[in-house]
Amino acid sequence: MGKATGFMEYARVENPYRDAKNRLADFDDLHAVQPVEARRCQAARCMNCGVPFCQSDFGCPLHNLIPEWNELLYRGQEQAALERLLQTAPFPEFTGHVCPALCEKACNLADDGVTNRDNELYLIETGFAKGWIQPRVPAARTGKTVAVAGSGPSGLACADWLNQQGHSVTVIERADRPGGLLMYGIPNMKLPKEIIERRVRLMEAEGIAFRLNTEASPDDLKAFDAVVLCGGARKARSLNVNHMDAQGIHFAVDYLTEATKALLSGRDPAISAAGKHVVVVGGGDTGNDCVGTALRQGCASVTQLEMMPAAPEKRTSANPWPEWPRTLRTDYGQLEAIAVQGCDPRVYETTVKAIHPDAEGSITALTTVRLAKNPEGRLVPAEGTEQRLSCELLLIAAGFIGCEEKTLKSFSLQTDARGRLLPENGSHHLGGNLFSAGDMRTGQSLVVRALADGRAAAREVNEWLRGRQA
Ligand SMILES: Cc1cc2nc3c(=O)[nH]c(=O)nc-3n(C[C@H](O)[C@H](O)[C@H](O)COP(=O)(O)OP(=O)(O)OC[C@H]3O[C@@H](n4cnc5c(N)ncnc54)[C@H](O)[C@@H]3O)c2cc1C
Ligand code: SF4
């Protein structure tokens, strides 16, 4: 145990957000980083529990060796701590920024859990700054070739692991930049894009080839010994109302992608919230990213509609520790909206009833309606609760319903009832030399789960390749 009394002496202190109004002037990292002394105090809070729930199935999907690296960090042995972290975590700089930190809620300190996410970010960034992170080029190659289709976190984790086993890996990516939703989806202020580019440069130096602007095709099945589909669960849920083809209506990921593309190339975005009344449909994390982006683009107002009631402030008895708490969270975008507009942008138990375009076909307003439970417990529109809301930009962040049809058609594949490429036996092997991983296999999830699934797929591919070699 690092410091026996650490958890009693030091309070939990996260890397603080920059001031809400100041950070709205740019798309830079939301957080200010704490000095090393503060970081060591935070690591000292780890109790090194006999049963560390943080690294169990309730906590970190990567099963990071959290108490071990927290102790080394507390003792000032940062390089050793980083080595322990890297035993299980492929890219701590991604999770250090965007992981919801399941481990912290499963911590025995409960609501005051150790700041593991900030600690791992500190370790990896220290490693890059001090030159401890260097390309690890495999000593020998197996002669086997693998194509990884999709460069999101699952594809990158899969490619990284297979490359380290000595296989020759090519990542095939349809977009112009690698990273999947890390690059085009999660906004720059949550995950600065140079962090992804730095990792990709490192992977290239380790021997992985990146083929961008390229769609994976069945020809790859002949060209490579194995193909792993890591295309994500990118089919978005739409709204069942008229005039969805009006100008000014976009899916969240299209809007966020354009915002990042414009930012990275220094031009104005083709879809902009500037000066507009913006309505975001969907009260979740993707909706929150739309709120933060619209505010940075200078929207006139932003409202977020959520069908469900607000979550409770505290855990209910049906949701005990160490489960992830299904409680009300107010994320950075919502905090920014409160700072600018003076109120929470979220309106609960409400949906869109009608869209009102002008004569040119551009959206100008919405009719919203409150939802209430009917006797069967289903949410239905409550008559007489309709309201008109100005709206010149409508962003749909209502969730994802599975993988895109384009890839399915091209590879002649069928999903399960939930839109996933998940074989019945729960493996990653779709048959022949074809495998799947990440959100494409599990449904839309989290970066840390995509990383874990990408690695699990890589192990299966490796065993399969080696079995064939024998
Ligand atoms: C707006 C938004 C914000 C999010 N924020 C967070 C967050 O803060 N924290 C968190 O943990 N999770 C977050 N998530 C979820 C997380 O991003 C995903 O769970 C994760 O990125 C899934 O990784 P993946 O590798 O499976 O797929 P993706 O990241 O979706 O990557 C799939 C890649 O495959 C490519 N592709 C698809 N088909 C083909 C093809 N046929 N040929 C070639 N390339 C192809 C795509 O272009 C894409 O680059 C967020 C999701 C969204 C939408
Ligand atoms: S990856 Fe996420 S869950 Fe795992 S240790 Fe890091 S912050 Fe915790």
Task: Describe this entry's structure for a reader.
This protein is α/β, with parallel strands linked by helices. 34% of the residues lie in helices and 14% in strands. The protein has 17 helices and 15 strands. It has helices at residues 6-9, 20-23, 36-44, 66-74, 78-86, 92-98, 102-106, 116-129, 153-164, 193-205, 219-223, 252-265, 285-296, 332-341, 405-410, 439-442, 447-469, and strands spanning 145-149, 168-172, 209-211, 226-229, 249-251, 277-281, 301-305, 346-347, 350-357, 363-373, 379-381, 387-390, 393-396, 429-431, 434-436. It has a six-stranded mixed beta sheet with strand order 3-2-1-4-15-14. Strands 5-13-6-7-8 form a five-stranded parallel beta sheet. It is globular, with a radius of gyration of 23 Å. Residues 98-100, 149-155, 172-175, 180-182, 185-186, 190, 215-216, 230-232, 234, 252-253, 256, 285-286, 289, 407, 438-440, 444-448, 450 line the site of flavin-adenine dinucleotide (FAD). The site of iron/sulfur cluster (SF4) has 14 residues, from helix 7 and helix 8.
